[in-house]
């Protein structure tokens, strides 16, 4: 799981970078989930100007649409529609 992923760039670049992240996921098959940190960092000694990771409504909807088109989501949908496997039995 990638926790607290965020992008602090000009708005026109944010969705481009999110798309790059989604496109790169097949190269990392052990990643099963990504959590986007949609907030601002508090001011601290390491970041006197805190990064702003928030997405506006347009960016959020575009991100949802991008995720919905992801092959990972389609694989999950197919798996959810598939019949569960039958009982597994060990040979006697």
Overview of the molecule:
The structure is a single chain. Helices cover 41% and strands 8% of the residues. It is mainly alpha-helical and 92 residues long. It has a two-stranded parallel sheet. The chain is elongated, with a radius of gyration of 18 Å. The mean pLDDT is 79.
How are the secondary structure elements laid out?
Blueprint: E1 2-5, H1 11-24, E2 34-36, H2 57-69, H3 71-81
Parallel strand pairs: 1-2
Helix pairs in contact: 1-2
Number of H/I helices: 3
Q: Please report which band the strand proportion falls in: under 5%, 5-15%, 15-25%, 25-35%, 35-45% or over 45%.
A: 5-15%
Query: How far apart are the termini?
Result: 39 Å
Global shape? elongated
